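Hi F.,

I've been meaning to write this up properly since the lab meeting, where we talked about keeping a consistent format for the predictions we share between groups. The idea is simple: the sequence comes first, exactly as it goes in, then the structure tokens exactly as they come out, then a line or two of notes. No screenshots and no reformatting. I'm using this chain as the first example so we have something concrete to point to.
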Amino acid sequence: MANTAVQPVSPSASQSLSRNLALVVGASLLMGILGRFSVPLPFTPIPITLANFGVLLIALTLGSRRAAAAMLLYLAEGAMGMPVFSPAGPGGILQILGPTGGFLMSYPVAAFVAGWIAERGSRNVLRFTLAALSGEVLLFLSGIAWLATLTHVPFSQAVNWGVYPFAFAEIIKIMSAVASSLRLRRSSKLASLLA
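Output, unedited:
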């Protein structure tokens, strides 16, 4: 007969799981707050929102796995009808399937990639900027491709709607996410929490 003894979970593993769970849930709630800050524009179906900033900040700060998990939780919250998406859209699953759906659906992948790049090597401005730019490229490629497919417009028109009006704001978001994340990671009070 095989020995089927149950191995107890060590207190440190339990604390690590609890900490990671708290970080993921907290990050999804932060996304819910940032996603609500949006400004609709009359010439495009895509509003200006702080959600992209949230994706980058969370990815750079929490790393690939926790950030991707937080984005999946955020999308699940929104799909269930919780008021976490931009109020400029219909909310719920319709928002994920609407004009901004390509951006929303890319959040977990963009967060994972940006977090993965940020985790490799020393954590400095150059690495975090490269990570944030990579995340932004994924967000916008997915967003524009979805927008062009959904609205049946040429890719160039989707770029006019989904890239050009946001370029300056996205540069500010990248710089802010990099600076904020580096500051959080260098904080002696948060370093052990984010490890």
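Notes:
Residues 20 and 66 are 7 Å apart (CA to CA).
The chain has nine helices and two strands.

If this format works for you, I'll send the rest the same way.

G.
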